Amino acid sequence: EYFVSFCENLIEELRQIGKIRTTETYTTTLNSFKRFMNFRKKGRDIPFDNIDSNLMMEYEQYLKSNDICPNSTSYYMRNLRAMYNRAVEKELVIQRYPFKHVYTGIDKTVKRAVPAKIIRQIRDMDLSHDSSLEYARDLFMFSFYTRGMSFIDMAYLKKSNLQNGFLSYRRKKTNQQLVIKWEKPMQEIIDKYDTIGSSYLLPIILDAKTDERKQYKNAAQLVNSKLKKLGKQIGLPIPLTSYVARHAWSSIAR
Question: Would the pTM count as exceeding 0.70?
Fold first, then answer.
């Protein structure tokens, strides 16, 4: 049995039973491992018997040399380990603990919150010269105004979620119901964008007929790359991303 082809089959099985998140996670991980295999120039697949701690230490070194941070390295290792353990369960390989010498923990990450004065500075920037920067900033501020709403929840907000001065929605991640009082700055952002003919509140998913998840992911990538640019413009010491709005809201609220 070969490791990469086993993982590909596993991913396909998971896709068929609707485990979309796991499918995406494992695919990202496997793509990284395949890049490493190409880099080694020893063929694109590898027998299970050759999956050992030396190989994983070599893979970890490869990730470090590509400036992958410890948390991301650990993320890849944990996912590979999960796929390897599936093969052990299916008795395709005897457990040899190939991950025992690589890092699979989670580091405390750099604080992502920024103070209120930075949020005000982002809000007040004149970005009329660049509509994509302005769009990214507006979605960042919308997230902040809505108590740090996550990007996926913003993408799937329907106009019907807003009723009688309250925005109510269920978190995609936890299914928790949240209700937020609708405030003027939120309305000002909505008013800036044309969503006539769409059932969505924000201009993230623009075409309900095509792949909505793909549209959301593309928008998230675009917004985060534009936010990083904005962060550099104001000299922020941390990368500005949509997460920063979440963390800023909770630390300012606290």
Answer: no
